[in-house]
Amino acid sequence: MGFRFANVAGRAALVDDAGNWHDAERASGGGVPADPMQAVGHGPALHEAAARLDPTAADGSVATATVLAPVPTASKVFGIGLNYRAHVEESGVDVPEQPVVFTKFPSCVVGPTDDVVLNCTAGDYEGELVVVIGAGGRDIAEQDAWRHVFGLTIGQDISDRALQFAAKPAHFDLGKSRDTFGPTGPVVVSPDLFDDPGDLQLTCDVNGVQRQSTRTSDLIFGIPFLVAYLSAIMRLSPGDLIFTGTPSGVGAARGEFLEPGDVITTTVDGIGTMTNRCVA
Q1: Does the pLDDT value for residue 52 go beyond 90?
Q2: Which segments of the chain are extended strands (E)?
């Protein structure tokens, strides 16, 4: 049975169909560590514990819990640029022949309801589907890639466009790694809970107005290819994150940058919704 994994107040948790959370260490009889980063390496035990969840023994409701970034201290956070054709078109560049990969420094990762601190003048939103690596490895074959995916979650690749393009070549890493520029969550959903984990609806709204909408089946480089591509270069570890790319409709293309007080709402069907408020 599949699972929904969350970080509740710093402890690994499983979320049941009713929206209640269960402490993963307790629900697994000690088979899953309490630390969320360690728990990511225990996918089989989480599957077993999820199949045994007793709704009457839940520890609380997710709606009233302190839900943090599900994978709070990943060793590696990859970003994939220009991975939807419509976004390539609005950016005025050629369709890439190989993935455009950059780093979001892990210190930028925050939770699904945390504030985004806009210490910049050209802050931009980028709603994305995020892959969480489970069983790590090197030289993973594309046909085996889903077996190495712990689950899928939602991300925002917040970007400081002025900093990003302050130099040539561009500072993709710096422009996308200010503190709080990597909201993720609210849960990680194992691939087997989706009818098709490669075809999910993603939307991003700002102040209730839809800015982005796509299906992840429109990715130029899909999830299995990205896992194989990256693992051919370096060993992937449990908890590594891959921000798979953003669709068209970003603020830079529209001339509409984020301002303090704006509320970013990012939704992926089957995973949930993140709501992040922008502050000065």
Answers
A1: yes
A2: 4-8, 11-15, 20-23, 60-61, 67-68, 77-81, 100-103, 109-110, 116-117, 123-124, 127-133, 149-156, 159-160, 182-189, 201-206, 209-215, 241-243, 263-268, 272-279
